[in-house]
Amino acid sequence: MLVRPRRNRKSASVRALVRENKVTGDDLIMPLFLVEGKKVNEVIQSLPVANRQSLDTIMKEIAECLKLGVHSFIMFPKIPDEFKDKTATYSYDPKNFYLKAATKIKKKYPSITLISDVALDPYSIDGHDGIVRNGEIKNDETLDVLEKMAVAQADAGFDVLGPSDMMDGRIEAIRDALDVEGHSNVSIMSYTAKYASGFYGPFRDALDSAPVNDPNIPKDKKTYQMDPANATEALIEAELDSLEGADFLMVKPAINYLDIIRLLKENSTLPIAAYHVSGECAMLIAACQNGWLEYTSVMPEALLSIKRAGADVIITYFAKDFMKLQLNKKVSLK
Ligand code: PBG
Would the pTM of this model clear 0.90, i.e. be above it? Predict the structure, then answer.
């Protein structure tokens, strides 16, 4: 035999030399769930690697992540019901605790990258990412709210805005609104190919943000999020987002959509982000808690698969545990 591929696998040192992909702290974005109050650190039953946290607890969480080498964060708010309405007005209210928290976080940690969520669902009594009227999600009226929300978030100090709503034309609308208000340096990480997936369950539990159960309200998000059967359509979204001024293109979910990550990577020169979503993490955790899989083995393998598929950036609830493993620290599931 002239060619023996096993020679390049013969020792840890040789394997390290020929290794094609590596996940590092620079690639990772840690999600944070913000709630009002003080000293809150509630475990989310269906997602035991993430907690709902008040600002003081989030400050400590960020410090811990920085020590581990994670310096990018995406923050989502859990909005009390009394602040919710049909048109998400609280999302751009200067009194909004989420906006105030962003300002304080950036003041304390100016060097981190802090990413927002631009969508109506946390603030909407209907639980949708757009304005609902006569049982329909109104695209163009929603853009007006998204513009106000985006400007308020930029004013608050977010470095990158993350429109997760999937309305048509939102990237251009947000980009224009930001530029007019003097925020030309604020970036946009667009949820470009966001699928109408069943894997968002634990996230909606965490934020209490699922579509409400009402015959006049669409029960799912299928008229705006993409059909899981489609791949080519992701290229339309990618082309639009690029032309409209997005700085990153995101694919979501990640593990069940590795083909889409690869497709966008090969068809765009923009950095590709992948959102390893709550349900994808939850099923892995559940199997590990049952002793059916080994956490320290499958968790890094899952992140590596996302990187290998072509993602430059990975949003994952495992960011902290992954870095602990890298640093030979102990990790355990609650
Ligand atoms: C809502 C939003 C969702 C997620 C991120 N932003 C849920 C949804 O679209 O219903 C899901 C993230 C996850 O499951 O981890 N705009």
Answer: yes
